[in-house]
Fold this sequence. Notes:
Layout: H1 3-11, E1 19-23, H2 30-37, E2 39-41, E3 56-60, H3 64-79, E4 92-96, H4 97-102, E5 106-107, E6 109-111, H5 113-119, E7 128-130, E8 147-151, E9 153-155, E10 161-165, H6 168-180, H7 185-188, E11 191-194, H8 195-199
Parallel strand pairs: 6-7, 10-11
Antiparallel strand pairs: 1-4, 2-9, 3-8, 4-10, 5-8
Amino acid sequence: MDLKEWEKRIAERNDITTHLIHLTKPYENGEIKILKEKKLIGSSTESGFVVGDKKAVCFQESPLYSLTQNIYFEQKLREEEKSKKIRYVGCGLLFKKTFVYKNQGRPVIYDKTEEAKKYLPKDQWWKIVNLNLGDENKIIDWSHEREWRVPDELEFELSDVSIIVPSSGGFKKIIEDCKNEGIDLINDVRTIINLADLFY
């Protein structure tokens, strides 16, 4: 199967995608810093949920509409005060899966952390995401993210990335912020995606 056939196969499905999404935190101007440096720095055990000594950049293999559903669900949890953590917001970067793969990106392994450590070498522990469905009162399951990770960091060109914004206001803000930083977003990135147009 060549690339075009692979893309056609995936185009026939609404539950999978040829892209991977890295969400960012807009209120810290995270996207602007990343776009300026053209680099994603991996999370660690301290700053994220990465197992082992190696940092990893995290992505979701999620169609855009599914991403909006995740974001909306988390928003409802915060509104109902069942969660105070801001886990998903509608800001991020979208890359072709083939680009991430060529940069050592791989799907994670969902398993009990201690079990996965038994069969993976220590230098591969960054791929582990804890999964435990054994206790019905304490389900641990992040498989809805269909997570991929890249070890350490991911460098890219602006032409490799599409920008995800939450709204038309977010679209205008990132254009202006990038302009102030000397980034020609309109001409340099692949596209800009307004999630509000998908969901509302």
